[in-house]
Amino acid sequence: MRNATTATTIAAIQTAKRLSASRSGERPSRPPLAAYPVFRTNDLDDAREHVGRVFCPHRLELERGSRLDALQNAARLDEEALLSYLSYGGAVRITPGRLETFYLVQIPLQGSAEITAGRRSIVSTPSLASVLSPDDPVDMRWRVGNPQLIVYFERRALERRLEALLGRPLTEPLRFALGMQLATPASRSWLGLVGLLREELERDGALLRHPVAASQLADLLATGFLLAQPSNYWELLHAEQPPVAPRALRRVLDYIDAHLHERLTLAELARVAGVGARSLQHAFRRQLGVTPTAYIRDLRLRRAHADLLSADPTAGDSVTEIALRWGFTHPGRFASLYRATFGVTPSETLRG
Questions:
Q1: Rounded to an integer, what distance in angstroms lies between the CA atom of residue 187 and that of residue 224?
Q2: pTM: predicted TM-score of the whole model, two decimal places
Q3: Is 332 exposed, middle or buried (0-12, 13-18, 19+ CB in 10 A)?
Q4: Which domain holds residue 311?
Q5: Is 98 inside any structural domain?
Q6: What pLDDT digit, counting tens, does each position of 304-323 carry?
Q7: CA–CA dist 200, 242 (Å, integer)
Q8: Strand arrangement, sheet containing 179-181
Q9: What number is the average pLDDT over the span 199-213?
Q10: What is the CATH number for 336?
Q11: Domain boundary among 126, 155, 184
């Protein structure tokens, strides 16, 4: 377990370094998310219309003497999260007013932008992302050469994840600090996750084309952000969690066993237990020594092992079909995990 955790940590650090390199001015051969083009134009009205379709209607003005070379790429993770690259080339003023239905995390890769949200203002740079909350009127000035990587969260979905973490309904709208310091340990970890998702999308996006996997990754992205970025629920999120009764944990384990074929989320399991998601995570670690995700993955792996043992390759049973049946959408990762657990490959088990 320690070796696997270390490998994951190293991979995240390496990804964060690669993302930092792109923010520090190293020009990639292609812009981020080039396989997911939305538009490229020198026309201001065309740019405003296309960006408005992805995010929301807004006012877009080109600063005097500046030249527009607008480009946007965007890839949706699921119905509730989106990753986008946006560059205007020249200096622009963007006035969307209140976002109302979504949150945005805007990460400058180069240059700077003046961001005003309500009465708060910051100068956003590659070391300070901006976080826009739905109820604040927004006014932005992106300077020349200020491409940004943008993470979009649907408002109600992010609020539901927060309620699941807290184990109770929200008493007031969720509102984040406007600036996100990207050098803190929590922000670096979250930025590493953004980089991993970007790499997966730019490689071929096969994992993210599977709805269950995409939804789980989007959930991880949102949960990580809630824990990394200060908000008006920051203290509650980081308060000590109450213990979970063994009976409640048993209820969750029985539920997992009965619904193992289905998409299982931490929020759903927390509702079954009647506690907050963080309390449930702590209960799994204290009483079982694993996270809920690791427990579910191990149980599914053992079900796949049992199916491979009883399968008949001459009747058309295959490793891929059985792996997909239990939610393993990446054949190479499934084979690696299977061999590490059982000492043989899935194909060897299938052949008997």
A1: 9
A2: 0.69
A3: exposed
A4: 295-351
A5: yes
A6: 999 999 998 878 889 999 99
A7: 37
A8: 37-41, 70-78, 81-87, 148-154, 102-108, 128-132, 179-181
A9: 75
A10: 1.10.10.60
A11: 184
- The reply to whether 176 falls in a domain is yes
CA angle in degrees (0–180, nearest 5) for 260-267-324: 30
Render pLDDT for 123-180 as a digit per residue (tens, 0 to 9). 999 999 999 999 999 999 999 999 999 999 999 999 998 988 887 889 999 999 999 9
Task: Answer for the pair 271, 259: CB distance below 8 angstroms, yes or no.
Answer: no
For 276, the token pair is: 């907050």
> What does the alpha-carbon distance between residue 226 and residue 215 come to, in Å, rounded to a whole number?
16
Residue for token pair 């020249």: 90
User: Position of tokens 């964060």?
Assistant: 16
Angstrom distance (rounded) from CA 196 to CA 209? 15
Asked whether 111 and 93 are in contact (CB, 8 A), the reply is no
> How many helices and strands (H and E) does the chain possess?
13, 12
Per DSSP (E only), the strands in 91-212 are 92-97, 102-108, 113-117, 120-124, 128-132, 138-142, 148-154, 179-181
* DSSP code, position 208: G
Please give the structure tokens belonging to residue 51: 């960006």
The residue with greater pLDDT, 255 or 278, is 255
Determine, yes or no, domain membership for 135. yes
Question: In which element (H, E) is residue 226 found?
Answer: helix 211-228
Nearest by Cα to 38 from 56, 55, 54: 54
Structural domains of the chain, count:
2
CA–CA distance, 42 with 224 (Å, rounded to integer) = 37
Separation between Cα atoms, residue 164 and residue 54, nearest integer Å: 28
Where does a domain end: 154, 184, 214?
184
Contact in structure between 158 and 101 (CB atoms under 8 Å):
no
